[in-house]
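Supplementary Note 3. Input sequence used for the single-chain structure prediction.
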Amino acid sequence: MWFIRDQKCRNRSLICIAMQSYLHGKPYKRMSLVTQFNEYRGKMNERIMESDSLIIKRIFNLDTNAYQEGALDVKSKELIGLTCSLVLRCDDCVKYHLGKCKEVGFTTGEVHEAMGVATLIGGTIVIPHLRRAFEYWDDLQK
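The predicted structure, written as discrete structure tokens, is reproduced below.
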């Protein structure tokens, strides 16, 4: 299957989609948000690691280890990561933590309530990120 990966094209009118399909002779199928995010994240993390930067490697290692079981369980840490990411308005971070929240077994109700608290703390400026978070969570449920 052929996928349009260009974000700008994906957000344009159906004319763009029809033109791309016509030019490539393949049917249009939208790549899921989850697949798109995970593929891009994996590709770019590999690229970053190729730089062989000790500082970056240490930051990645610290990030990985911070979410291991400790005084707080993994579920609590992921919920903290999700809510902080939403307050900080980091869409990639929110997507990552939503994926982890699904992996560790949070329900939709729990995730929605946590995101509600994060929006309360972050203020109305968080709402556009909340919309994308809801869309991504819905895509994770498929």
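The radius of gyration is 18 Å. Residues 1-11 have pLDDT under 50 and may be disordered.
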